[in-house]
Structure to design on (286 residues):
């Protein structure tokens, strides 16, 4: 449980979730990336987006104070431009399980800024990394963000509801995959010794038996889910009628997996399944 402060004008969100949401949001052109936080009744939800990608987290230990006068929070990525070190620090291992407190400081600190700095302040929030075993905070462990009513806002609960509605429903039951096997997809794209940041398009399919299939130019990968036990690819694609067929020919047959078949034909015009090509070796020259 998160310990409650004397004043309940604050939000508490997991440090790693906030850090990862910001990691996506900051990818955008300054004004377009953003972080949206709202209560789900129990815990908090947080979304980070750069307009092209969206990451969602639910923090079951998140807390929205009883006296916090905001149903939701939106922060443009530009608000954190001067505080990158703090936000990046949230992703260090030692901070993953900590909470970030976002306090409404409009009445006291905001008033001071308005009077002495002549700064227009509609709302002011203070971000603080909770250090449970330290009496004082280290430098850089807190900062303030000024928000104005005319700030650009690209996310709201209404917008998110529309986004989630458009996410296609799963045809198959949710299937557990080994994360390391999913990471194998990264091996499809050859770097050729270069660290190029060019787009690397890969098509993804979840086929029958919940097999994961990834296809890109010159290569494809088929991976099995965790719930198939000790079975092998050969057993999964075994066909009593076509015992002599290549297992991959069965796996991507036009009849069973039309979309996968079409994508492979698009990326690999000659996969070589029908007629195996003769492989040239030096021995033939002797």
């Amino acid at each position: 449980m998160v310990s409650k402060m004397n004043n309940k004008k604050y939000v508490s969100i997991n440090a790693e979730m906030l850090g990862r949401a910001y990691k996506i949001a900051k990818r955008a052109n300054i004004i377009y990336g953003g972080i949206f936080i709202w209560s789900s009744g129990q815990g908090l939800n947080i979304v980070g987006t750069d307009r092209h990608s969206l990451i969602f987290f639910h923090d079951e230990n998140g807390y929205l104070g009883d006296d916090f006068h905001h149903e939701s929070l939106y922060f443009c990525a530009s608000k954190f431009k001067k505080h990158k070190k703090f936000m990046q620090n949230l992703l260090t291992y030692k901070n993953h399980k900590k909470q970030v407190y976002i306090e409404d400081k409009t009445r006291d600190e905001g008033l001071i800024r308005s009077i002495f700095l002549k700064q227009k302040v509609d709302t002011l929030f203070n971000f603080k990394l909770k250090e449970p075993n330290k009496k004082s905070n280290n430098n850089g462990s807190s900062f303030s963000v000024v928000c104005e009513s005319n700030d650009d806002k690209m996310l709201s609960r209404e917008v998110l509801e529309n986004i989630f509605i458009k996410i296609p429903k799963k045809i198959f039951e949710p299937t557990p995959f080994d994360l390391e096997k999913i990471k194998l997809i990264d091996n499809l794209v050859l770097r050729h010794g270069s660290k190029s940041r060019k787009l690397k398009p890969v098509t993804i399919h979840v086929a029958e038996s919940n097999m994961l299939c990834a296809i890109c130019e010159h290569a494809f990968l088929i991976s099995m889910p965790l719930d198939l036990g000790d079975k092998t690819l050969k057993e999964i694609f075994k066909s009593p009628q076509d015992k002599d067929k290549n297992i991959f020919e069965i796996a991507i047959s036009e009849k069973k997996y039309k979309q996968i078949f079409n994508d492979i034909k698009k990326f690999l015009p000659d996969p070589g399944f029908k007629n195996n090509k003769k492989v040239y070796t030096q021995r033939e020259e002797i």
Observations:
- The first helix runs from residue 15 to 25.
- Residues 1-5, 136-140 have pLDDT under 50 and may be disordered.
